[in-house]
Design brief:
By secondary structure, the chain is α+β, with helices and mostly antiparallel strands. It has one domain: Cyclic Phosphodiesterase, Chain: A.
């Protein structure tokens, strides 16, 4: 699935600014299950939580059902692979959010974002508002492809998620650095 997301990212028009250039090293395609600011001192505790969740999770194959084109807070088009929101995926999201809520803060500042350039205001807004606008009943599982509109037609794609990871976010809420990861041992 990572390869398909990277390939779709390469098809975006250059005039969209190439703000997101997906790869397997420092701009990882991903499904955001939770988002917030954490204290570095809590990483070991968060790792234990994610390891426990990963061992108990029985996540069946996921399916990309559409290419979603939306707009961010400043009106730019953003393309994403829309993932079918199954009961199991929704439950995983809610469990991760509930267990990590005690560690999250949402008073994000520019210096918290791992980026060679100043963080975009839309990045800070997305992080700040994740809990209220993008979680629980508002959870919309997707893999961001990038800025611009993907025009290639899509057939449904089935894939298996293999890891839960805690990542340092970069500009445009990209996963820039994996801090910890846990293998989904119960994947089917």
């Amino acid at each position: 699935m990572m390869d398909k997301a990277i390939e779709a990212n390469r098809e975006l028009p250059e005039e969209s600014g190439n703000k997101i250039v997906l790869n397997k090293e420092n701009c990882l395609p991903h499904i955001s299950l939770a988002m917030g600011c954490i204290d570095e001192n809590d990483i070991c505790e968060i790792e234990k939580i994610l390891q426990t969740i990963a061992k108990q999770c029985h996540l069946p194959q996921l399916k990309v059902v559409a290419i979603q084109v939306g707009t961010n807070s400043v009106g730019e088009k953003v393309s994403s692979f829309q993932i079918e929101n199954t009961e199991v995926l929704q439950s995983l999201h809610e469990e991760v959010m509930q267990k990590l809520t005690p560690y999250f803060k949402y008073d994000v500042t520019v210096d918290m974002v791992l980026s060679p350039h100043r963080a975009e205001p839309s990045t800070l807004l997305w992080i700040k508002n994740y809990r209220n606008k993008a979680s629980f009943e508002n959870f919309f599982p997707h893999i961001t492809i990038g800025y611009g509109q993907v025009t290639t037609p899509l057939s449904p794609i089935k894939f298996t998620a293999s890891k839960l990871a805690l990542c340092h976010l970069g500009n445009n809420c990209t996963c820039r650095k994996v801090l910890i990861s846990a293998e989904l041992e119960g994947k089917e």
